[in-house]
Amino acid sequence: MSYIYVLNHSDxxxxxxxxxxxxxxxxxxxxxxxxxxYIPIGAAARLNIRPSYGIFISYYSPGGNIxxxxxxxxxxxxxxxxxxxxxxxxxxxxLTDTFSSGNDVLVEVDKKVERLIHINIxxxxxxxxSFPLSPxxxxxxxxxxxxxISKVRPEIEEGxxxxxxxxxxxxxxxQSGKTAILRGTANLGYDFVIRNTAWSDFINL
Length: 205
Description:
Blueprint: E1 3-8, E2 17-20, E3 30-32, E4 35-37, E5 44-48, E6 53-60, E7 66-69, E8 73-74, E9 80-87, E10 90-95, E11 104-109, E12 117-123, E13 126-133, E14 138-142, E15 147-151, E16 161-163, E17 172-174, E18 179-185, E19 189-195
Parallel strand pairs: 1-18, 9-11
Antiparallel strand pairs: 1-5, 2-4, 2-15, 3-16, 6-7, 6-8, 6-12, 9-10, 11-14, 12-13, 15-17, 18-19
């Protein structure tokens, strides 16, 4: 399992910490809080962040209504090569046997599809990355393990969508095995310190 650790060394009696993932192509933060942590003063939490990725396709009418959504295909080990193909009137997403490595994901839309297709990537059953591909289009990307952690408003719940306005701290990047320490006071403000070791490996903080 992959874990991160969060310690509350602030005067905040009950932190509201959101963990989320966003693509570099998302300019504004408008993401799913796919994991939450509520941690009392002096307490620590170990969070299992082993990701579960998937991919599905969708397409829309000229008016913007969803005409079709495929089943989600798991992205095993964070890699895979996928093709969008057309057979008669059906458009399908297929996992191919083509080799992929290094957490690369490759998606290709066959020219016979003849319509714009939206490729949707899920993480822990939440959509966090979506992009359009035209017939004949090819897209390659890498699924990173970087997460964003932020102190957010208490009303944010796991699975809800939140925006930058609902964050009480600027986001910090955290990865598996690292520890986020919340410091500060209500008067002076709060911040995170990201330690590159796991909390269980600490002797003194």
